[in-house]
Amino acid sequence: MNGKTLVLCDFDGTISARDVGHEVIKRFMDGDWLEIDEAYAAGKIGSMAAYQRIASLLKVSREEMEEYTSSISGMDPHFREFHRFCRDRGYEIKIVSDGLDFYIDFILKRYGFEDIEFHSNIIRFHENRSVTIEFPQYNKECAKCGTCKSLLLQQYRRHYDTIVYIGDGYSDVCPSQYADLVFGKDILYEKCLRKERACIYYRNFKDVREILEKDPCFVSGGRKSRAVL
Q: For the chain, which domains are there?
């Protein structure tokens, strides 16, 4: 790849081995949240509206979330090698997540990746185990996702020649259409296939690294071509 390259990564289920946000919600919800989850998956509500409803039902202290996050945290076993590969090639890595800052920050620090810049929703802890969730990266024109990954990608576009996107979920579908090269699995990969959008299937970061090592001709100095393998 030529020029300055940015690798934008989702966090839950992508860098992290599990969807930590989903696990946290299941563990600490004081009420039935399945209706909210089903409405989100069906596209009836965006993640910001879902989080606003969830926040009123979420009962957890900072200490409880830290303890639970510690018990379930884990990363893609190949991410460390991928991080080293990107550093050696001069590719920058940034995380764009529609999850919560608390557990992302905790896990990155735990595994020694506190140098990676990330954007996410923010959880605030209050008395009586109540919480509120803030959305510093939402898109005022859309107001659907808590973190508008597409808006962040477009902001980065002016500083990079090539943007590689790696993700797996609903919140990755929109930004994937603006990237130069997309790696997807699970929901993202299925959605890209249905919409006939270029996407390379990956299982883990070893797959991503091996493909990028080949310097494929379809990534060359900007948004000139995209391919599906």
A: 5-213 (3.40.50.1000)
